[in-house]
């Protein structure tokens, strides 16, 4: 029996900052941002959006009545949680009008947690093949203004419906994984911005990839030429290229050229959004599906990494009608119709946050065209709204 990703949706807020403008404001060479880290634009989040609304907007792209009647497991992966107790998945279940007869869980381990959710969903479907699983990966990457991590911020959400006989990607049962207690990145419960040792984290990322990849080839007797594309978690898009280059000597020139070309297509959309944390790998998958040179039946390898640290390499088989599992036109329109903001506006929006003292705040939602919005906080409860 085949199980895996049947449909995928994506959402990012309606504002972005051009990285050239940020470079000029910070006194840096724009090439450091465009080439050195591989980013062109960065999503900017208004006060009317959070991980719940972004995930709901992404999921609304793809859910049908049949999905709503058969989804009975919701797995919400995020490291930007809005409550220390109540799962974001429950807010989402209510917003989307999904059945109450479901399990709704929040999953956390930095940027890796969406992969954990995907693997949990796969195992669930193998036992319950007639059901469907909704996986959400939504985050807001925040490091602070004028910090070393500022250029690797971003925001957005990827929604995935999992099923038997999936339309997009059938997941294999082959994977290798690694967990180590590493302080390369973390966010204390009292902080709204992450703490990160950028160079150390990049080195750990490469170490994890090489360890897990070689363990995978030794365990399952695969080689690089078995794959049309390798996909990577992209905290910034150059990071995945660095990892890919470490293994290209293991294959012939034709395969190396194919893998490099497909990697470039797999980071097209990430370059325009920035870091999605849990969603970065899966936005890269979407970008590859939309822009890459792929054929049905192709094997894809995926490297998932979450600081702290945990990583996994797993594979899937591309299905013949994979292009029908997502709406490329809608996603490209979403990206193209965003409004560019200048640096002062971005800084003001970054500093505008909901109150943390229990006070009431009502947001102006009239300028947010999204279907699902955050209308404010009242009596210490977030006020979510669905707009026509």
TrEMBL record:
Domain (Hydroxymethylglutaryl-coenzyme A synthase C-terminal) ranges: 263-342
Top-rank lineage group of the source organism: Bacteria
UniProt cross-references to Pfam families, sorted A to Z: HMG_CoA_synt_C (PF08540), HMG_CoA_synt_N (PF01154)
SUPFAM superfamilies on file: Thiolase-like
Gene3D superfamilies: 3.40.47.10
Domain Hydroxymethylglutaryl-coenzyme A synthase N-terminal: start-end pairs: 2-163
Protein name stated in the entry: Hydroxymethylglutaryl-CoA synthase
């Amino acid at each position: 029996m085949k199980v895996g990703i049947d449909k995928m949706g994506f959402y990012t807020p309606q504002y972005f900052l051009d990285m050239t403008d940020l470079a000029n404001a910070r006194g840096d060479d724009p090439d450091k941002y465009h080439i050195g880290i591989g980013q062109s634009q960065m999503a900017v989040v208004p006060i009317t959006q959070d991980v719940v609304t972004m995930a709901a907007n992404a999921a609304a792209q793809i859910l049908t009545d049949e999905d709503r009647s058969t989804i009975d497991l919701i797995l919400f992966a995020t490291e930007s949680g809005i409550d220390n107790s109540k799962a974001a998945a429950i807010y989402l279940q209510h917003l989307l009008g999904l059945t109450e007869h479901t399990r709704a869980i929040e999953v956390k381990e930095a940027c890796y947690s969406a992969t954990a959710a995907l693997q949990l969903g796969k195992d669930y479907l193998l036992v319950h093949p007639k059901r469907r699983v909704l996986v959400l990966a939504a985050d807001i990457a925040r490091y602070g203004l004028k910090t070393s991590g500022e250029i690797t911020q971003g925001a957005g959400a990827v929604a995935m419906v999992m099923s038997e006989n999936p339309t997009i990607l059938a997941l294999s049962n082959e994977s290798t994984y690694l967990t180590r207690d590493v302080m390369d990145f973390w966010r204390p419960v009292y902080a709204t911005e992450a703490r990160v040792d950028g160079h150390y984290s990049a080195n750990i990322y490469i170490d994890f990839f090489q360890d897990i990849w070689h363990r995978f080839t030794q365990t399952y007797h695969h080689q690089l030429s078995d794959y049309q594309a390798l996909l990577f978690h992209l905290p910034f898009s150059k990071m995945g290229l660095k990892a890919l280059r470490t293994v290209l000597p293991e294959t012939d020139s034709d395969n190396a050229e194919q893998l490099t070309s497909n990697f470039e297509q797999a980071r097209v959309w990430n370059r325009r959004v920035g870091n999605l944390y849990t969603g970065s790998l899966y936005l890269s998958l979407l970008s590859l599906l939309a822009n890459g040179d792929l054929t049905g039946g192709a094997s894809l390898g995926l490297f998932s990494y979450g600081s702290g640290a945990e990583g996994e390499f797993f594979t899937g088989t591309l299905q013949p009608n994979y292009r029908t599992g997502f709406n490329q036109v809608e996603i490209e329109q979403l990206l193209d119709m965003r409004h560019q903001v200048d640096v002062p506006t971005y800084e003001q929006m970054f500093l505008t946050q909901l109150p943390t003292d229990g006070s009431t705040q009502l947001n102006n939602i009239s300028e947010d065209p999204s279907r699902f919005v955050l209308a404010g906080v009242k009596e210490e409860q977030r006020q979510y709204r669905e707009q026509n």
